[in-house]
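Here is one chain, start to finish.
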Amino acid sequence: MPHRRKVYVIDDDEAMRDSLNFLLGSASFDVALFPSAVSFIEMVSGLDFGCVVSDVRMPGIDGIELLKRLKLARCMFR
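Its structure:
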């Protein structure tokens, strides 16, 4: 069985997370859902290499700030 590609969905809107989970799962991606950038950052060091799909407008840390922080941290996805 081929390795399923990882996608990390970060969005404060539960309906959007569920929709993306269904869509990406149907396309054979292994999807992990996060309700906020903070919850993703707390887990990032233990995650496998993958693609991040993030909402831009979220309370607290928005998607642009998340991207900046991942870039500064060299993203930990190695």
